[in-house]
Amino acid sequence: MAPTNERQMNDTSSKASESPAEPKGKRPPVLVDGVTLNGPTLDIREAESFLREAMPIVMEEAVWKATDVKEKVCEWRSPEQLKDLLDLELREGGEAHPQILQRCRDAIRYSVKTGHPLFFNQLYAGMDPYSLVGRFITEAINPSLYTYEVAPVFLLTEEAVLKKMIEIIGWQDGGDGIFSPGGSVSNMYAVNVARYHHCPDVKVLGLSALPRLVMFTSQECHYSVSKAAAFLGIGTNNVYVIPSDKRGKMIPAEFEKQVQRAKDEGALPFMVNATAGTTVLGAFDPLEEIADICERHNLWMHVDACWGGGALMSKKHRYLLQGIHRANSVAWNPHKMLMAGLQCCAFMVRDKTNLLQRCHSAQASYLFQQDKFYDVSYDTGDKSIQCSRKPDAFKFWLMWKAIGTKGLEERVDRALAMARYLAEEIKKRDGFRLVMEPEYTNVCFWYIPPSLRDTADGPEFWRKVHAVAPVVKERMMKEGSMMVGYQPHGDKANFFRQIIISPQVSREDMDFLLDQIHSLGMDL
User: Fold this and answer.
1) How far is CA 143 from the centre of its chain?
2) Same domain, 353 and 460
3) For the whole model, what pTM was predicted?
4) Between vectors from CA 372 to CA 370 and to CA 377, what angle results, nearest 5°?
5) InterPro entries, alphabetically (predicted)?
């Protein structure tokens, strides 16, 4: 007997040659509401042909060329130009495959190539081949991680990855966790779980049953912390912002003052968000001192290590997160420093009492039946606030299996060494000035064009320097040569923030970066 898909293809291919009036050897059509239900509507041969034509385009244009340092990082077009080029309108009828293949080429051509060695714009970069294949597999299988019965492989790989990450954090008694759709959601999980830990009645009775809750975070934290407070009904006014020192680290003494302030106001302080690797400066809060304060005041300690968590893989650099083992929860994004590919975000708790399950469970009977024929403890979906959930851990697991813990450590060590090289080069070059010595791979610096180099520091000087980075960024984008981010920070004028992650990046690329910025800005 022919396989099912072969039978379907035979049915489809013979459809045109057989008369509907005389369906020789076939059952007569079944009509329901005017729709013919015999056979598949998808032409299997045509679908296979399309995939065989499309995949080489993806490999050539989105993988090989997109990671070639000799190619452009981007091919800039304005929004209006791009709308015309892409022909975005959706119509009644479909297009022929040649047109759709051209749509694929255009989508790749006009997208930013984040795997390019000269893409330094965000806290993710590069392209790992093993992670990429992992993504191909999960996109093709298209599972959802709520129950073992529909995602057995991917639930087990998530469990294995979380177990290893928890071990690396240093929770000797273990813990629990789940992968989330972004570090912002992980931080929201932290706020929700911390609140439930302090006030378990909130799940049933809601906000009206709660005292005024206050949480704490540094002025350098990620904006997702205040968003979580707004989303969960805590209120942004109840997020007490702790001053940071000149390097961007939370000042513990100021933190404790704010805790006492909240108590004096009659509020209930319940958690602190400490940051391990701030977005702009790459600063690490003093976790040991923060943990001491949390223990004195019975506060939940969450560490946002979405960016800086990668340093835990390095024996040389894990000191940056000294004390993280004392945290109650941790957010860590392997898609950043470890290059697991977007998105790959773990939220973990130092808890063995099923806190995640108790906080988020809704016990949907159509998914989480307790009388299944296998161990239902593997049906982990009820720990999540989501129903459908992508298998984001699999690509990280496959990459980790391929290069090992040692390979991940080497990536981290190389990235930090490259950041040190760039910082030293900046010190040597006229017209470049470090904002501060880098602690991580965030290298922050100003470019000062020749016209300003003899100008004394002062308000007018910094006003003119402030205008340099946006112009240089515009020029590099339109040229497509590279991408580097910039921003103001506090009272500091716009400066470049160079992020180093990918092992594809070479010393020559660092030299090119500085040469190119000078070339693009020397006339300003």
Assistant:
1) 20
2) no
3) 0.91
4) 60
5) PyrdxlP-dep_de-COase (IPR002129), PyrdxlP-dep_Trfase (IPR015424), PyrdxlP-dep_Trfase_major (IPR015421), Pyridoxal-P_BS (IPR021115)
